[in-house]
Structure formats: C-alpha cells, structure tokens
Amino acid sequence: MAPGSSEQGGKTLLVVHHTSSPATRELLESVLAGARDPEISGVTVRSVPALHATAVDVLDADGYVFGTSANFGYMSGALKHFFDTVYYPCLDAVAGRPYGLWVHGNNDTAGAVTSVRKIVTGMELAQAAEIVEITGPLDASVRERCYELGATVAVTVSGGL
User: Fold this and answer.
1) CATH code for the domain in which residue 127 is found
2) Which of 57, 67, 133, 134 has an alpha carbon within 20 to 30 A of 115's alpha carbon?
3) Using CA atoms in the order 64, 69, 72, 76, what is the torsion angle rounded to 10 degrees?
C-alpha cells in the first residue's frame, strides 16, 4: 500500500512508541487522543509498539510520531532497534514526511532527544511540531502538550497545515 492510500482512502499517521511504564503509556494515550481528534479528518492513526514496527509500516505511512522513555541518557533500546531496522530500507523513500516526538525521563531527556534528532535528520524527516520533553511526574499541562503534539502532526499529515 503506497503512502496516502489507507483503507479509508486518506492519509496514515504512524505512532511508533516504547511505553514501558504507566507514565509513558499515559502520554501515548494523550498523543493518540489528539491525533484522533474528531475535528481532524482524512487521517488513519496506527499505533505500533517499537519492537513490532517494520519498514513496511514506515513506508506505508505519510507521517510519524515517535515516543520513548529516556534511558541512561539515550532513547529506549526498543526505539533504537526500530530505527536500526527501518533506517536503510526507508532512507530514500521518506524524505520530507512530517514527524513529532515525545520523550519522558525521570530527570533528563536531552540525550534521548539528541539521539532521535540525529536519526530523523539522516532520514530527512520534517519536524512538524515542537518536541515534547517531560521530566518527572505527569500533570494536566503535560497531557495537553501530548494531545497537541498528536493533533498537530495529524493535521499536518492531512494537509491541513
């Protein structure tokens, strides 16, 4: 299936995530709620855990949201494995497609953000929304920022921005 040819005839937003904790799971749910906002039409949202996402998933999507915990100053091993798996098969095919990113860490997210940025820059993806970096406990403003992240990337994929 080529990009833009989802079962419903619209565009596809692929959300690739590693949600190993209740906090990262909650952030994912907020991102998905935003991406599936009823005001946004023409976008099918697919949520795939990082260890299950494939190059075919990436090639079939029109845009992406990546979510990860910050582990030892880096993205999660699961998200790194995903990027290792899809990087070369997708390299020349995804340039210019929009992406968004959220990262949750207990006290630092900088290394995780930097590591993802290097990879998406190499893939020539286009940042569609401000990166959401979260340290510590979640609150309503964090959930809202993740909702907005999902919605912004979905609208971008739909052609609305």
Assistant:
1) 3.40.50.360
2) 57
3) -50
pTM of the model: 0.93
> Looking at the domain assignment, is residue 100 inside a domain?
yes
Domain range enclosing 77: 11-158
**pLDDT (tens place) for every residue of the chain, 161 residues total:** 445 444 445 999 999 999 989 999 999 999 999 999 999 999 999 999 999 999 999 999 999 999 999 988 899 999 999 999 999 999 999 999 999 999 999 889 999 999 999 999 999 999 999 999 999 899 999 999 999 999 999 999 999 76
Position 13: which residue type? L
Q: How far is CA 72 from CA 29, 77, 112, in A?
A: 24, 10, 9
Which H/E stretch holds residue 94? Answer: none
Q: Measure Cα distances from 85 to 115, 141, 155 in Å.
A: 16, 34, 27
**How many residues are given for the chain?**
161
